Amino acid sequence: MNPQEMSEEEIDAVTPLDLLHSDNYTTKEIRNERFDICKGCDRLFKPTRTCKECGCFMAMKTWLKGADCPIGKWGRVED
């Protein structure tokens, strides 16, 4: 897709490649708070810890500062 045709949400979206850079990570406390929310959510497919809304592996996505819940249960961490 041409970057000029992308929405702000698509440009700001996190990707699995963000996991390769530790400066993209949030604190362990915030990660645990986020993942606890996910574990209590009916949209989490527990056997694989995958979100049924976005398809992400939440055990990993919850580490990323720029990530947010697709149904608004937790948001991005601002620096």
Describe the overall structure:
By secondary structure, the chain is mainly alpha-helical. The chain has 3 helices and 2 strands. A two-stranded antiparallel sheet has the order 1-2. The termini are far apart. The model has no long low-confidence stretch (mean pLDDT 88).
Overall 3D form? globular
DSSP helix fraction: 25-40%
> In terms of per-residue confidence, which ranges show pLDDT below 50 for 5 or more consecutive residues?
none
How large is the count of helical segments?
A: 3
Radius of gyration from CA coordinates: 13 Å
Mean pLDDT figure: 88
**Most strands sheet:** 2 strands, antiparallel
Structural class: mainly alpha
Could you give the distance between the termini? 29 Å
Taken in chain order, the helices and strands follow as HHEEH
How is the topology of this model organized?
Elements: H1 8-12, H2 28-39, E1 44-45, E2 50-51, H3 58-61
Summarize this entry quickly.
This protein is mainly alpha-helical and 79 residues long. It contains three helices and two strands. The radius of gyration is 13 Å and the shape is globular.
List keywords for this structure.
single chain, 79 residues, 3 helices, two-stranded antiparallel sheet, mainly alpha
